[in-house]
Amino acid sequence: MKKSRFAAVAAIMAVMLFCTACSSTPEASSVTETPSSTASSASAAPESTSPASSEAGSDVSSEAAEPSESPVETPPGTLVESTRVEDSYFDDAVFIGDSVSLKLNRYASEQRKSNANFMGKAQFLTAGSMGSGNALQPVSDESIHPMYNGEKLSLADSVAKSGAKKVYIMLGMNDLAPYGVDGAVENMQKLITTILEKTPDAKIYIQSATPLVKAKNISTHKLNNTNMAAYNEKLAALCAEQGYYFVDVASVVSDSEGNLIQSYCSDPDNMGIHFTDEGCQVWVDYLYTHTAQ
Fold this sequence. Notes:
Residues 160-281 form the SGNH hydrolase-type esterase domain. InterPro entries: Ester_Hydrolysis_Enzymes, SGNH_hydro, SGNH_hydro_sf. This protein is α/β, with parallel strands linked by helices. The chain has one domain (80-288): Rossmann fold (3-Layer(aba) Sandwich), CATH 3.40.50. It has eight helices and eight strands; from the N terminus they run H-E-E-H-E-H-E-E-H-E-H-E-H-E-H-H. The strands form two sheets. It has a six-stranded parallel beta sheet, with helices on both faces. It has a two-stranded antiparallel ribbon with strand order 4-5. Helix 2 links the parallel strand 2 (93-97) and strand 3 (123-126).
């Protein structure tokens, strides 16, 4: 009888254990599904991020390419103030001008005695009494052309031999009286054309003609500040039309009435147009802070 009871109890316990096992199976199943679900999300992540990764790669490639792009070229016309350049900016520059620029040439030479890098390796083609008009004349013993390496040449030939890529021109003082404002502008364009024929990749920088001191600004003379201002205005327009750069040096050396500032003039009792060292440094500073890319 006891054996029968034990057998019955054992049977009941076995059934209970079996039921317990059956009821716990879904919980185990749900636990094991969790890693499967996570793994599925993880595997989905690369699929969903793959396009984003591709886009990011494209962006990085695009950003990396930006530094290799050429800087935006400065539009032609009047140059505005820009970041001051290094001396080396003028390594490939040549300055063409009359006796006003001849003073700048001498000033640069003097400064280079203590600072060899002053205005870089800029070269100068200057001659007293030179204008666009007489610079277009054939070269001769009597012609007004600057010397280049000991030889008198046309400006076009001298620029070509210099290897310059930036050509700064300041002429007009000796053109206004014989040719008038319009004639002086025409001569300037003709001169530039001859230069570009032999140095086609040169960039042209026309510097405004600088004014006279007040005492020498005589309205009855053809060379006066009113005509000079009209000439400069037409030069600025020429630059915008032809793709040249206009460097308005006159604006920084003039007083409120448009006359050359007295302290910048070395010959106020004579011609009233040439510069002192102080005036030349103001001129140079303007050149350094008004450049084109």
